[in-house]
Design brief:
Chain lengths: ~130, ~130
DNA sequence: AGTTGACCTGGAGTGCACTCCAGCTTCTAC
DNA sequence: GTAGAAGCTGGAGTGCACTCCAGGTCAACT
């Protein structure tokens, strides 16, 4: 099964331009081409894209993704360094999760304050117009 | 208590340049100045900076922070719209937390795979050299 | 009085991750 | 056989959030 670029974009959640951009910067391998010279993405291509978008979602910079992609080409021999990249990245993600959660607490606290402020105001208003 | 810009930078975790930048774009009010025309940040200034950095950590774009800062100047009257901004942002943060967690699962899965790959390789090596 | 270091201003430059564009080709449908 | 949609290329442009710089001021120490 192969997919035209529009379909690949749709399935990966990336834009057509971004797919071509990722190819240019060697984040993905040039996909096969159909008889008319158009890109024909394979399921493997899409799987790799899906993984890349996860890395992106977790905030991995493109440079590091490229490094990872480069290692992938070396096959099994590069399993160890690839693992190291993912492990380090995992730590980053965990740290960010913790940060996010603690900021969320502050946000909740603030919202709660506004809640009370608005409630107080409403009460005042009711009393004033009573 | 007031703080020179270097101290304010240190305490807020922002760079000196970023502090001046935030002032230029009206994210923070111009702090007081000492006799020599140098910025003298107050505790209030630092508290506001601390909150801004939380918003930043949670990925709020500067534009929205500016909007929030603008509303703040209108005092109590703007409590409701400010609350709305924080509530919407809270939803964003929750969504990102969920995304991050699900991506983390994929990451864990991949790392686990590499774990097995490396273990298998080691075993092979041991067998080959035995 | 002179040197050093922190700070000042306005403006230019940077890095990242796309995003858009002009001008061209190729398939599909009528 | 022609119109329109989808895709192609190389290169330029965008938005965001800083970051850096030149050239100057000010205060404190020696």
């Amino acid at each position: 099964m192969t997919y035209a670029i529009a379909e690949a974009a749709h399935r990966s959640g990336l834009s057509i331009d971004t797919l071509r951009y990722y190819e240019r910067i060697e984040l993905i391998d040039p996909p096969a081409r159909d008889s008319g010279g158009r890109r024909a993405y394979s399921d493997d291509d899409l799987n790799w894209l899906a993984f890349l978008t996860r890395l992106r979602t977790t905030g991995m910079p493109i440079k590091l993704m490229r490094e990872y992609a480069r290692l992938r080409h070396q096959g099994v021999a590069s399993a160890a360094p690839r693992k190291r990249i993912l492990e380090r990245h995992r730590e980053d993600v965990l740290a960010r999760l913790a940060d996010l959660r603690s900021c969320l607490d502050v946000l909740d606290y603030k919202i709660d304050n506004y809640e009370r402020m608005c409630a107080a105001e409403t009460t005042e208003l009711r009393e004033a117009t009573a």
